[in-house]
Amino acid sequence: MTMKKITYTDFKKYFSIALAVFTGLLHIGQFTVLQMESIKFFAWHLMLGLMLIFLHKPVKKNAPPAAPALDWFLICTSLFVGLSVILNYDLYVVMMQTASQTAFFKVVGIIATLLVLEAARRTLGWTLPIIAVITVLYALFGGRLPGILGHRGYKITRIAATIFSDQGIFGSQIGVSASNIYLFLMFAAFLNVSGADKIFQDLAIRLTGKKRGGPAKMAVVASALFGSISGSAAANVMSTGSFTIPLMKRQGYPPRFAGAVEAVASTGGQMMPPIMGAAAFVLADITGISYGAFCLAALLPALMYYITLFKIVDLESVKRGFTGIAGMEMPSLKKTLLGGFKLFFPLICLLFLLIVVRTTPMNAVIYSGAALLTCGALSKTDRMDFKRLLKGFDNAGKSSVQVISACACSGIVVGMFALTGLGLKFSNFLIQLSGSGIVISLIFAMIICLILGMGLPAVAAYIVCATAIAPALIKLGIPVVSAHLFLFYFASISAITPPVAVASYAASGIAGENAMKIGLTAVKLGLAGFALPFTFALNPDYLHFGFDFLTLITWISAFVVCLSAAIAVQGYTEQKITATERLLYCVVIVSAIQSSLLFSAAGWLLFAALYWGMQIVRTRRADKNEAQKMLDVYKK
User: Fold this and answer.
1) Cβ density class 552-562: b for 16+ within 10 Å, e for less
2) Is the pLDDT of residue 132 over 80?
């Protein structure tokens, strides 16, 4: 009997799985039985992350035959850099504390910096590496610049020491990735191999399939459920959009609208608690606010985003006269819920541990992951066997590469900002700009976030913006949570903002429509995403959550604002409305969104008068016209 020959592809696959399993077990062990020093753990995390990046992201598409040799050279170099820190940890810590380096560590630090830049280029594109290089050049030559941009000047030794320290690539950014994000990416990966996407899809079909405009509503619900876990707008589009976009087109929605609905719905997943695409942990770490408190604060804006989109979709179906999908086979709700117990129970367990018990996110996700694996092993259908277990580890490794490279490369930028004081200078400039009004400063911050977000993942764009802009917004009187969530929203919403609009490009392939047309339509449908950050920046009540009167008032106002915004955008209720009515709905938004109870109540009353009062008037007018027609016929 001859043994099967192992090809290079097979070897790469087995090595990838083995590396991912080791990485996963190391991260679980760190918060259970290992508990090594933080910097040493970060070194392990970055080393394994770089190896996974160079394994899964080739030097370029259609690379020449010699390219794999370069990839393996970089994998081995990453191993060398990581072990240099791990095996010489005590010496490294002393040098880091004294901001000095031996000749050996100077070389290792330069190599590590180049590896991080190349890893970021492969996974994120050129934008973030270029920004990082510019900040390094500024640190090196900025001493020659005149005026406010100048600084004392730093030698390459000091710059290299800063980058290769806990102020740079081993700073808090990679710390969040190592401590929180990787474990949650593992949890999401195991949810997916357990069939979470199918359960969420069936649940969305059951809840919305036979409603008017069912396929579009299906996209909104499914993306809200799945998007929070996936963390990538483009990945969410490819997952749920492959099912919902063809259904929307089949019902009669134009391709540009179908693609835009999915792009906007998928982008919102990054803002939806409890996971927010793993960004919640970065936000919580940078702001110093507990994860549970941050999720509760982010809940209402996320719901407002989706309620507005859901109502816009509903009114679009009114305009087009769409109903639910006739003859569509509905999955059994009972079967879906019973089959999804293995998925819902771990999620409930996760939320209970985070919000009620208030344990650390690391322990919460480890216990919830154990619950997930236990429920999966006991399941009669889609049992979590050894093959799926390995696939879960492997998928976690693949999904982590973008976050690890973003956090590591962001560490270079943050380190240079701290060394040169560039972040403080930028904040002072923004404060001076605020002389024209705080709204002007917010608009300026929005533009920067949108520009950075066009070329970066939301987490990376947010980290850079938080370093440069957040301190200024806080000095202007905007609360910490509001300031940071403002920046994160615009870093996320850039996924549907032309000209780059990565979520719109992902949807265009499925919809068979021009990406720019989808992007422009998505901006209209995603209007809430552009308006909400200004809302909670200027009125922090929208981030308040508690069992009190303020929360009740705020949530009622939020619901009124969402419905009014959707009606103003579409120009429809159950019938077409006049331009004057659309303008009055805008007045409702401005009134109800205020922190004053008097203004809010006035907005509610105006909304009631417009929404129900005008329907009564139209109904009576229609009945009167119908009666007149019957009378005219009778007279004839």
Assistant:
1) ebbbebbbbbb
2) yes
